Amino acid sequence: MYHLQVAKDAAFKSVVHENKAAKGATAAAKLPVGDYFWRVASIRKDGGRGPYGDASVFTLLPPPAQPDPPKIDAYGMEFRWAREPGQTFEFQMATEPKFAKPIMAQTLSSPEITVPMPNHGTYYMRFRAIDPDGFVGPYTAPQRFQVPELPFPFTHPVLELPLFTQ
User: Fold this and answer.
1) Which of 2, 11, 133, 151 has its CB 3.0 to 4.6 Å from that of 40, i.e. a possible disulfide?
2) What are the residues facing 108 on neighbouring strands?
3) 91 within 8 A of 106, measured Cβ to Cβ
4) Taken in order 60, 10, 51, 54, is the CA torsion positive or negative?
């Protein structure tokens, strides 16, 4: 076991989270965005605590902003969102907000994706960022959007051929 401390200052005078019985990897309490210091000390079987290791610093960043609604046209849907330098992304699309069975899951090197037009109905999308150091952030809140029912027969404006049948 370990004694974990998270503080706002390098001297640990302003401890904002403490876990005196952490086992292995542990998630800290929900902290506000900002810079923090953390350190751990081992706990012996007799309950005695060893010395703290060197403190390390980390920055808690805000989650990614919700993207704009997708742009929908006769060819498909285009999703775009903001990025930090060096990030990659995991994108998911589903027909229900819990993403139990995503209909699309893709790793992206840029903050955008164009997908073919699905059948009309309600869909959900979400993504999460992966930082250059390998940190995988949380998924954004599911974004709900509607794909409208297209008139039959829907034709491509250049080819004038039916694209979708019902």
Assistant:
1) 2
2) 89
3) yes
4) positive
pTM: 0.63
Q: Which CATH number fits domain 71-157: 3.40.50.2300, 3.40.50.80, 2.60.40.10, 3.40.1190.20?
A: 2.60.40.10
Counting DSSP H helices and E strands in the chain, the numbers are 0, 14
pLDDT at 156 over 60: no
Two structure tokens written together for 38:
């953390």
State the burial class of residue 109 (Cβ atoms within 10 Å of its Cβ: 0-12, 13-18, 19+).
Answer: exposed
Would you give the DSSP letter of residue 136?
A: B
The answer to whether 31 and 5 have CB atoms below 8 angstroms apart is: no
CA 91 – CA 126 distance, rounded (Å) = 6
Q: What is the pLDDT of residues 94-110, one digit of tens each?
A: 999 999 999 999 999 99
Rounded Cα–Cα distance for residues 63 and 86 (Å): 16
Tokens of 7: 């503080």
Q: Which region among 42-46, 57-61, 65-69 has the lowest average model confidence (pLDDT)? A: 65-69
Report how far apart, in Å, the C-alpha atoms of 80 and of each of 69, 114, 131 are.
9, 9, 18
**Domain range list for the chain:** 2-60, 71-157
Length of the chain as a residue count: 166
